[in-house]
Amino acid sequence: MTWQDRDGKALTDYPRPSVAVDVAVLTVRERRLHAVVVPTERGHALPGTFLRPEENLADAADRALRTKSGIVDLTFHQLRMFDAPHRDDRGWVLSMAHSAAVSNRSLSATNEFVLIDRGRPASPLAFDHGEMVTEAVLDLRERYAREVDPALLIDEEFTLLELRELYEIVFDRSLPKDTFRRHVLGSLEGTGTTSAAGGGRPAELYRRLPSPTLPPSAGAFLLD
Question: What confidence tens digit (pLDDT) does each residue in 32-66 have?
């Protein structure tokens, strides 16, 4: 027996959109925030693909990263569905946008990037991928306001200056040294060692605690 709705229509009576996935991979390079992009016939775009039969969204996103940009074993999560009816001139396409952040050390020298300036791509991207990047940046900032460097964008051991500089890149603004220190210090532990002098006074090295959750006051400070 074929299922029908109250109007007597079966599922096959309704037009169906294609479903795609796109992944905004953020990283820090040259002391600026960037997103990984790939060349397409419509210009640069985020790594993405169409969902295949019997495939879930996460597997499709993983396949897109692997085949389009050579990125494997990356942890990512869903942002939201982009569903504007005319977002893709090829037809009715819904795209589930995903977000990830990774150290530039984990990326290939062949990867291409777009600079992020003031929270958005500095140059146009295909389709609505610029909006996806903007949402990925906001998502990244919310994560960094809750936890110390959750994406491990800097080394395992770092100085407070290096950590503050990372946060200034992520949040795209200067952060007062003493206020920043007060908010993050409870989520760190000292290593008992110092950085190499490098022409200046050695600085104490820290690492993240096993659960480096920031206090609510840090969120208010960083997201203000």
Answer: 999 999 999 999 999 999 999 999 999 999 999 99
Q: Which two tokens stand for residue 123?
A: 């140059």
User: Interior CA angle at 131 toward 152 and 80, to 5°?
Assistant: 70
Helical H runs in 70-122? none
The one-letter amino acid at 80: R
User: Long-range contacts: 135-140, Cβ < 8 Å, 24+?
Assistant: 135/24, 135/79, 135/80, 135/97, 135/99, 136/24, 136/26, 136/35, 136/79, 136/97, 136/99, 137/26, 137/33, 139/79, 139/99, 140/26, 140/99, 140/101, 140/170
Gyration radius of the chain over CA positions: 21
Residue 217 has a pLDDT of: 95
Q: Which residue has the tokens 């990925």?
A: 136
